Model the fold of this input.
Amino acid sequence: MEISQSTTLVRDLRSRTQKRADAAADTRPRVTLSFYRYVHISNPEAFRARLLAKWRGLECLGRIYVAFEGINAQMNVPKEHWEAFDAWVQDQPELTGIPYKSAVQEGDAPAFFKLMIKVKDKIVADGLDDSSFDVTNTGDYLTAAQMNEYINDPDAVVVDMRNNYESEVGHFENAITPDVVTFRDELKKTPELLKIHKNKKIALYCTGGIRCEKASAWLKHNGYQDVRHLKGGIIDYAHQVKAQGLANKFKGKNFVFDERLGERVGEEVISTCHLCKTNPSDTHYHCKNQICHTLFLGCDSCVEKKAGYCAWHCAKVDTLPAGTKKVLARYYNLYIKKRQPFQKRRLQG
Ligand SMILES: [Zn+2]
Ligand SMILES: [Zn+2]
Done:
């Protein structure tokens, strides 16, 4: 088990470089989108096989989770295949009428390097026992205009249901941003955290809305009466603000779980470089040392000075012979990685 973990890492490293090169070489315009649906899927393995066969043929890339409880997808599609993709998706009984959320900002670099469809226990890791409460008793939706009213309403509280590294670079004005690194922890802490606001109206939000479906039902189960959530999350909020000419109350960047790592919604930079702890920065990088791969915020000057590594020792490690790195990777996976919760970007949205 220990050895296979490290060999998997090493094999992934090689193929990641290759896949990155292949994706970068493909410069066709693509549509980046996300969608989710809680819907009963009777045979997730067979559903996965069906998606994989079709989407491979259409040269789609992305990360998709499938479970008995539904689907959660973040992906992109070559523009030339968009119509075929859309027609096929809408033709699947599980997906008919599913609303897409298109990216607020397409990046210059590819958002995904491969197509990965996984069968999971749940489409978002929430740590909840779904049989212990009514998961269908979700809160009502809020539009962008209603969200803006909530933000200015002294009788309302707005709660960010995302992790600290997401809200660090962008969040709604006056929002409560819990200091957590997983959605599991967020759900554990929020009922307690909101106790002082029990009689207020509560508005939840996340990236694309999926986390709030579960979170709103969870808070209602915990005795909160008036819980609503932002429909389509920050992504749809940004589109509505633009289309309807509303005031933008979201400050900074919307963190996303693909290679773009973020899309700009508000013009301001609200966070600081993790390396110098001085200069403003909301640009995320992964440490160039593939064993570390830690996510950090870097200003231009620090990224240049440290050559893309999060620390000097990571630059040193990268100069070691491949065999030594293999041993270090094994040690890192076993003893250190577990304590770095946001180094692996789980699909959320
Ligand atoms: Zn810096
Ligand atoms: Zn590093």
Notes: The chain has three domains: 24-119, 130-252, 271-343. Residues 130-252 form a domain with the Oxidized Rhodanese; domain 1 fold (CATH 3.40.250.10).
